[in-house]
Design goal:
heterodimer; A: alpha/beta; Glutaconate Coenzyme A-transferase; eight-stranded mixed beta sheet; about 35% helix; B: alpha/beta; two-stranded antiparallel sheet; about 20% strand; NagB/RpiA_transferase-like (chain B); CoA-transferase (chain B); transferase (chain B)
């Protein structure tokens, strides 16, 4: 069986500007932040991003890498809730958005996973979602009238086909079997099913035998068919949470505060983002120690 | 100890769920969470309550506390519940208009807003699939507007009567720090059901951009019973988080 281990920078080396990338997790929960940081260090740009957005989308916006975004929401999940970099990109009109109902994201990924052009869904009808999509979102009448003869017309959610997917899980083997250990798988399996190239980072890489003993079978949401590259990345979801650590609320607040002025952001970027992942983790550790004083 | 405005709001929030039966109650704020739990502990014992993350509570805990669980409800399954219709959500709102259109997405033009909030979240899917209510802890003209900037949650004037896909749309209540409302005014417009003790019709009118039906006739919101007060104060919210959400 293939050994799919890669480094963060090797993964990003396989991406190209202009791609459509799906980013797993949810809000500020189990986001593949180390992979996002690797994207920030690269010259890959002009991206279309599909996500349940959190600071992943914020960081990509901070570097001007997003051209178009498909999302159900963008939230940091704790105060001040609204991501400052996403907000800035929006108020400056720097990105085109295809905002949609949260359930439509799942639906679009399911359509892509099943290689269907669309799936019908009720959500979106009557709302501003159709306006957000500027003609790219259609409705479809049912070919089966109800008993009273009336025809139901639904949103035809188009497949959210992805060039690449980034997800972060707690535990993986080198072949791409991977598991979550928290309370929610989110939609990481769907992102991988919807994508051409699939990359998973994991807090810990273990042998297959250890993986299957460590978690209930139902928690192994990725199999080998769904993964092209595996990266061992301890703390790779930081500052969002993963199964084995909570969200770093202090650091997330630090991120928000740093976004407020060009000077504070330059300092944040120099210390945390213009450095390899190992130095990021060391700097984050140092930040945590400073906070204790 | 006299009853606070927040406690009146908690009971009004609980009343949202009267008659709901065996469905998922999804309150999105502190006062409405206390309200849903109060309903479950008193007149709606079959409600399903989650921890807001991925677990169904078997027993009803205080705000911020844990409790034994009875099941699993990760986000993916929440969308299944939404589509099934077996849910009543109580969302917040940055704006609501007279027909019940709601905005929590952003202010200003769609592709270049003046202020960014969450995006539409689950509001379009919630409002077209199952009962939806709103809670507004500060009733002002800036919230109750003539026209919302971005329609996240759909109002009655958005319903296409020729399309049965809209048949599950139902906006049940709006509870604010001033009163309790529904959309049974003329043409499904906002109507006053009751005003909280101490609130006058003038105060509500001054804080709403449009005319509210039935405002002059509205009675007084009921006070908590002694048992409800005991549950709110000693069981569900002994630390008084409710008072932080609704100013006295």
């Amino acid at each position: 069986m293939r050994d799919k281990r890669m480094t963060l920078d090797e993964v990003v080396g396989e991406l190209r500007s202009g791609m459509t990338i799906g980013i797993g997790g949810w809000g500020s929960r189990r986001k593949p932040m180390a992979l996002v940081r690797a994207l920030l260090r690269s010259d890959v740009t002009d991206l279309t991003v599909v996500t349940y957005g959190g600071p992943d989308l914020g960081l990509l916006c901070s570097a001007g890498k997003v051209r178009k975004a498909y999302y159900g929401f963008v939230s940091l999940d704790s105060a001040p809730f609204y991501d400052p970099w996403f907000a800035k990109a929006r108020t400056e009109g720097a990105i085109t958005v295809r905002e949609m109902d949260e359930g439509m994201v799942k639906c679009g990924l399911q359509a892509a996973a099943a290689r269907l052009p669309f799936l019908p869904i009720r959500a979106g009808l009557g709302s501003a979602v159709l306006d957000f999509w500027e003609g790219e979102l259609a409705t479809i009448p049912s070919p089966y009238p109800a008993a009273d003869g009336r025809v139901e017309t639904l949103v035809a959610m188009p497949a959210l086909n992805l060039d690449a997917a980034f997800v972060h899980l707690d535990l993986a083997d080198k072949h791409g079997n991977a598991a979550y250990t928290g309370v929610d798988p989110y939609f990481d399996d769907l992102y991988c099913l919807a994508a051409e190239r699939r990359y998973v980072s994991a807090d810990r890489l273990v042998e297959t035998e250890e993986l299957v003993k460590a978690v209930p079978q139902q928690a192994i949401i990725l199999n080998r068919m769904l993964v092209d590259g595996v990266v061992e990345s301890p703390g790779g979801a930081h500052f969002t949470f993963s199964g084995s650590y909570g969200r770093d609320e202090k650091f997330q607040k630090h991120y928000v505060a740093a976004a407020q002025t060009p000077e504070s952001w330059a300092e944040f970027k120099g210390r945390y983002l213009d450095v390899p992942e190992t130095e990021y983790q060391a700097a984050v550790h140092a930040f945590a120690e400073e906070q204790k004083l | 100890m006299s009853v606070t405005r927040a406690e009146v709001c908690v009971v009004a929030a609980a009343e949202i769920f009267r008659g709901a039966g065996e469905i998922m109650a999804s309150p999105m704020s502190t006062v409405t969470t206390i309200g849903a739990r109060l309903a479950r502990l008193t007149f709606e014992p079959d409600l399903l309550l989650s921890d807001g993350e991925a677990l169904f509570f078997a027993e009803v805990p205080a705000i911020g506390a844990k409790a034994p669980v009875e099941g699993w409800i990760p986000f993916s399954k929440v969308f299944d519940v939404v589509a099934s219709g077996r849910r009543h959500v109580v969302m917040g709102a940055n704006q609501i208009d007279r027909f019940g259109n709601q905005n929590l997405s952003a202010f200003g033009p769609l592709q270049q807003p003046k202020r960014q909030m969450f995006g539409v979240r689950g509001a379009p899917g919630n409002t077209i699939n199952h009962a939806t209510s709103y809670f507004v802890p500060r009733h002002t003209k800036r919230v109750f507007v003539d026209q919302v900037d971005i329609i996240s949650g759909i109002g009655y004037d958005r319903v296409d009567p020729d399309n049965p896909a809209y048949r599950f749309h139902h906006l049940h209540r709006v509870v604010t720090n001033l009163g309790v409302f529904d959309f049974n005014g003329p043409d499904h417009t906002l109507r006053a059901l009751s005003l909280h003790p101490g609130v006058g019709a003038d105060e509500v009118a001054e804080n709403t951009s449009f005319e509210i039906a039935g405002l002059a006739e509205a009675g007084e919101t009921r006070l908590p019973t002694e048992e409800e007060l005991r549950i709110i104060r000693t069981v569900l919210d002994p630390k008084g988080f409710r008072e932080k959400e609704v100013a006295a």
